[in-house]
Design brief:
The chain contains 8 helices and 15 strands. The protein is an alpha+beta fold. Strand 3 and strand 4 form a beta hairpin. The protein is globular.
Protein backbone atom coordinates (compact mmCIF):
# COMPACT_ATOMS: atom_id res chain seq x y z
CA UNK A 1 0.00 0.00 0.00
CA UNK A 2 2.87 2.39 0.85
CA UNK A 3 4.47 1.71 -2.53
CA UNK A 4 1.18 2.38 -4.34
CA UNK A 5 0.70 5.67 -2.47
CA UNK A 6 4.23 6.79 -3.36
CA UNK A 7 3.55 6.02 -7.05
CA UNK A 8 0.39 8.12 -7.01
CA UNK A 9 2.12 10.99 -5.17
CA UNK A 10 4.96 11.05 -7.72
CA UNK A 11 2.61 11.59 -10.64
CA UNK A 12 0.46 14.13 -8.83
CA UNK A 13 3.47 16.29 -7.91
CA UNK A 14 5.49 16.00 -11.13
CA UNK A 15 5.23 19.14 -13.30
CA UNK A 16 6.07 17.08 -16.37
CA UNK A 17 3.63 14.22 -15.99
CA UNK A 18 0.84 16.03 -14.09
CA UNK A 19 -2.18 17.38 -15.94
CA UNK A 20 -3.43 20.95 -15.62
CA UNK A 21 -7.20 20.39 -15.64
CA UNK A 22 -7.83 23.75 -17.31
CA UNK A 23 -5.82 22.80 -20.40
CA UNK A 24 -7.37 21.32 -23.51
CA UNK A 25 -4.96 18.51 -24.28
CA UNK A 26 -4.44 16.21 -27.23
CA UNK A 27 -5.03 12.47 -26.78
CA UNK A 28 -2.62 10.81 -29.20
CA UNK A 29 -4.34 7.46 -28.62
CA UNK A 30 -7.20 8.86 -30.73
CA UNK A 31 -4.85 9.37 -33.71
CA UNK A 32 -4.51 5.96 -35.39
CA UNK A 33 -1.29 5.77 -37.37
CA UNK A 34 -1.64 3.82 -40.62
CA UNK A 35 -5.42 4.24 -40.41
CA UNK A 36 -5.67 8.04 -40.52
CA UNK A 37 -5.24 9.35 -44.08
CA UNK A 38 -3.85 12.70 -45.19
CA UNK A 39 -7.17 13.27 -46.96
CA UNK A 40 -8.94 12.83 -43.59
CA UNK A 41 -6.82 15.61 -42.11
CA UNK A 42 -7.62 17.88 -45.06
CA UNK A 43 -11.34 17.24 -44.53
CA UNK A 44 -10.98 18.17 -40.85
CA UNK A 45 -8.97 21.31 -41.58
CA UNK A 46 -9.11 22.98 -44.99
CA UNK A 47 -6.21 25.20 -43.88
CA UNK A 48 -3.85 22.26 -43.36
CA UNK A 49 -0.35 23.52 -44.15
CA UNK A 50 2.69 21.73 -45.57
CA UNK A 51 5.92 22.35 -43.64
CA UNK A 52 9.54 21.27 -43.69
CA UNK A 53 10.61 18.85 -40.96
CA UNK A 54 14.06 18.56 -39.44
CA UNK A 55 14.58 14.79 -39.19
CA UNK A 56 16.31 14.43 -35.83
CA UNK A 57 17.15 10.77 -36.39
CA UNK A 58 18.67 11.27 -39.85
CA UNK A 59 21.73 12.93 -41.34
CA UNK A 60 21.30 16.61 -42.16
CA UNK A 61 22.77 16.06 -45.66
CA UNK A 62 19.64 14.15 -46.72
CA UNK A 63 21.60 11.13 -47.94
CA UNK A 64 20.12 8.67 -45.42
CA UNK A 65 16.38 8.05 -45.72
CA UNK A 66 13.79 6.29 -43.55
CA UNK A 67 11.40 4.34 -45.79
CA UNK A 68 8.63 4.28 -43.19
CA UNK A 69 7.59 7.86 -43.92
CA UNK A 70 8.00 10.74 -46.36
CA UNK A 71 11.18 12.35 -45.11
CA UNK A 72 11.51 16.06 -44.26
CA UNK A 73 7.94 16.99 -45.18
CA UNK A 74 4.94 17.21 -42.91
CA UNK A 75 1.59 18.87 -42.28
CA UNK A 76 0.32 21.03 -39.43
CA UNK A 77 -3.22 21.82 -38.34
CA UNK A 78 -4.58 24.32 -35.84
CA UNK A 79 -6.74 21.47 -34.54
CA UNK A 80 -3.62 19.69 -33.25
CA UNK A 81 -1.25 22.30 -31.77
CA UNK A 82 2.46 21.42 -31.81
CA UNK A 83 1.91 18.20 -33.78
CA UNK A 84 3.37 17.59 -37.24
CA UNK A 85 1.86 14.78 -39.32
CA UNK A 86 3.91 12.87 -41.90
CA UNK A 87 2.52 10.36 -44.35
CA UNK A 88 4.02 7.02 -45.34
CA UNK A 89 6.42 7.16 -48.28
CA UNK A 90 4.41 4.94 -50.63
CA UNK A 91 0.76 5.75 -49.86
CA UNK A 92 -1.64 8.15 -48.21
CA UNK A 93 -1.66 7.09 -44.56
CA UNK A 94 -0.16 9.04 -41.66
CA UNK A 95 2.74 6.94 -40.39
CA UNK A 96 4.63 9.42 -38.24
CA UNK A 97 3.88 12.19 -35.74
CA UNK A 98 6.44 14.77 -34.60
CA UNK A 99 5.72 16.45 -31.27
CA UNK A 100 7.45 19.83 -30.97
CA UNK A 101 8.93 21.34 -27.81
CA UNK A 102 5.68 23.14 -26.95
CA UNK A 103 3.54 19.99 -27.03
CA UNK A 104 1.37 19.21 -24.00
CA UNK A 105 -0.84 16.15 -24.07
CA UNK A 106 -1.11 12.39 -23.72
CA UNK A 107 1.09 9.82 -25.41
CA UNK A 108 -0.60 6.75 -26.94
CA UNK A 109 -0.04 4.80 -23.68
CA UNK A 110 -1.91 7.47 -21.69
CA UNK A 111 1.15 9.20 -20.20
CA UNK A 112 0.84 12.98 -19.94
CA UNK A 113 3.88 14.96 -21.06
CA UNK A 114 4.88 18.60 -21.24
CA UNK A 115 7.91 18.44 -23.55
CA UNK A 116 9.08 21.90 -22.56
CA UNK A 117 9.78 20.51 -19.06
CA UNK A 118 10.85 17.02 -20.08
CA UNK A 119 14.44 15.86 -19.53
CA UNK A 120 16.21 12.65 -20.52
CA UNK A 121 16.30 11.68 -16.83
CA UNK A 122 12.52 11.86 -16.54
CA UNK A 123 12.08 9.81 -19.74
CA UNK A 124 14.37 7.04 -18.47
CA UNK A 125 12.66 7.01 -15.06
CA UNK A 126 9.32 6.50 -16.80
CA UNK A 127 10.56 4.17 -19.58
CA UNK A 128 13.56 2.25 -18.18
CA UNK A 129 13.88 0.13 -21.35
CA UNK A 130 14.82 3.28 -23.30
CA UNK A 131 18.09 3.75 -21.40
CA UNK A 132 20.16 3.25 -24.56
CA UNK A 133 21.54 6.33 -26.32
CA UNK A 134 21.62 6.08 -30.12
CA UNK A 135 22.94 8.37 -32.85
CA UNK A 136 23.77 7.76 -36.51
CA UNK A 137 27.00 9.70 -36.10
CA UNK A 138 25.98 12.28 -38.69
CA UNK A 139 22.87 13.25 -36.73
CA UNK A 140 22.70 16.32 -34.49
CA UNK A 141 20.74 14.44 -31.83
CA UNK A 142 20.92 11.50 -29.46
CA UNK A 143 17.74 9.45 -29.32
CA UNK A 144 16.18 7.29 -26.63
CA UNK A 145 13.91 4.97 -28.59
CA UNK A 146 12.32 1.55 -29.03
CA UNK A 147 11.86 1.98 -32.81
CA UNK A 148 8.30 3.25 -32.24
CA UNK A 149 8.76 6.28 -30.01
CA UNK A 150 11.86 8.49 -30.09
CA UNK A 151 12.88 11.11 -27.52
CA UNK A 152 15.62 13.44 -28.81
CA UNK A 153 18.41 15.29 -26.99
CA UNK A 154 20.60 17.77 -28.90
CA UNK A 155 24.28 16.76 -29.22
CA UNK A 156 26.75 19.23 -27.79
CA UNK A 157 29.30 19.40 -30.62
CA UNK A 158 31.85 21.15 -28.42
CA UNK A 159 31.96 18.12 -26.15
CA UNK A 160 34.65 15.68 -27.30
CA UNK A 161 34.87 12.82 -27.74
CA UNK A 162 31.29 12.04 -28.74
CA UNK A 163 31.74 8.36 -27.96
CA UNK A 164 31.36 6.88 -25.47
CA UNK A 165 28.47 9.13 -24.50
CA UNK A 166 28.77 11.02 -21.22
CA UNK A 167 25.42 9.94 -19.75
CA UNK A 168 25.87 11.99 -16.60
CA UNK A 169 26.12 15.11 -18.79
CA UNK A 170 23.28 14.41 -21.20
CA UNK A 171 20.76 12.91 -18.77
CA UNK A 172 19.94 16.37 -17.42
CA UNK A 173 19.35 17.87 -20.88
CA UNK A 174 15.94 18.86 -22.19
CA UNK A 175 14.08 16.81 -24.77
CA UNK A 176 13.98 18.72 -28.06
CA UNK A 177 11.24 16.72 -29.77
CA UNK A 178 9.45 13.39 -29.87
CA UNK A 179 8.67 11.15 -32.86
CA UNK A 180 6.03 8.41 -32.91
CA UNK A 181 6.49 6.14 -35.94
CA UNK A 182 4.70 3.15 -37.43
CA UNK A 183 5.59 0.88 -40.35
CA UNK A 184 2.38 1.10 -42.40
CA UNK A 185 3.37 -1.61 -44.86
CA UNK A 186 3.88 -4.08 -42.04
CA UNK A 187 0.81 -2.83 -40.14
CA UNK A 188 -1.56 -3.04 -43.10
CA UNK A 189 -0.23 -6.46 -44.10
CA UNK A 190 -0.80 -7.82 -40.60
CA UNK A 191 -4.25 -6.20 -40.51
CA UNK A 192 -5.15 -7.80 -43.83
CA UNK A 193 -4.22 -11.25 -42.53
CA UNK A 194 -5.63 -10.83 -39.02
CA UNK A 195 -9.10 -11.48 -37.65
CA UNK A 196 -11.33 -8.57 -36.70
CA UNK A 197 -11.32 -7.84 -32.96
CA UNK A 198 -14.44 -6.43 -31.34
CA UNK A 199 -14.39 -5.45 -27.66
CA UNK A 200 -17.66 -4.44 -26.01
CA UNK A 201 -19.13 -3.71 -29.44
CA UNK A 202 -16.21 -1.57 -30.61
CA UNK A 203 -13.77 -2.63 -33.34
CA UNK A 204 -10.18 -2.38 -32.07
CA UNK A 205 -6.67 -3.08 -33.32
CA UNK A 206 -4.02 -5.32 -31.76
CA UNK A 207 -2.41 -2.46 -29.84
CA UNK A 208 -5.67 -1.67 -28.06
CA UNK A 209 -6.20 -5.38 -27.42
CA UNK A 210 -2.91 -5.52 -25.50
CA UNK A 211 -4.30 -3.11 -22.91
CA UNK A 212 -6.62 -5.80 -21.59
CA UNK A 213 -5.60 -8.56 -19.18
CA UNK A 214 -7.18 -12.02 -19.04
CA UNK A 215 -8.86 -11.16 -15.74
CA UNK A 216 -10.64 -8.21 -17.42
CA UNK A 217 -12.50 -10.50 -19.84
CA UNK A 218 -15.94 -12.02 -19.22
CA UNK A 219 -16.48 -13.93 -22.49
CA UNK A 220 -14.76 -14.59 -25.83
CA UNK A 221 -16.72 -15.62 -28.94
CA UNK A 222 -15.07 -16.66 -32.21
CA UNK A 223 -17.01 -16.28 -35.47
CA UNK A 224 -15.83 -18.07 -38.61
CA UNK A 225 -18.46 -19.00 -41.17
CA UNK A 226 -20.89 -16.26 -40.11
CA UNK A 227 -18.22 -13.55 -39.76
CA UNK A 228 -18.57 -12.08 -43.28
CA UNK A 229 -22.35 -12.26 -43.12
CA UNK A 230 -22.37 -10.20 -39.94
CA UNK A 231 -19.36 -7.89 -40.42
CA UNK A 232 -18.87 -7.81 -44.18
CA UNK A 233 -15.44 -7.93 -45.85
CA UNK A 234 -13.77 -6.92 -42.55
CA UNK A 235 -14.70 -10.31 -41.15
CA UNK A 236 -13.14 -12.40 -43.94
CA UNK A 237 -10.42 -13.70 -41.60
CA UNK A 238 -12.86 -14.35 -38.76
CA UNK A 239 -14.07 -12.20 -35.88
CA UNK A 240 -13.15 -12.43 -32.21
CA UNK A 241 -15.78 -10.84 -30.00
CA UNK A 242 -14.73 -9.98 -26.45
CA UNK A 243 -17.01 -8.85 -23.66
CA UNK A 244 -15.27 -7.34 -20.63
CA UNK A 245 -16.35 -7.62 -17.01
CA UNK A 246 -16.46 -3.83 -16.80
CA UNK A 247 -19.17 -3.66 -19.50
CA UNK A 248 -21.21 -6.31 -17.70
CA UNK A 249 -21.01 -4.41 -14.42
CA UNK A 250 -22.28 -1.23 -16.09
CA UNK A 251 -25.55 -2.90 -17.03
Amino acid sequence: MIRANFFILFFLTSSTFAQNKDEKLILLSEIKLCELKLSDLKKQDENLKEVEVVEMDLCSDGFVEDSRFENRKGYVSSLYPNVIFQKDSYGYYISKIRLTKEFKGYLPDGTYININELTAKIVIEKYSKLDTWISRGCSDFWSLNDDKIYFYVAIDKSKEPRYPIDKAYYITKKIEGVDIVSNCYKYLKEKEDSPLYVIDGKEVNKEELKKFNAEDIETVTVLKESAVEKYGEKGKNGVIIIVTKASINKK
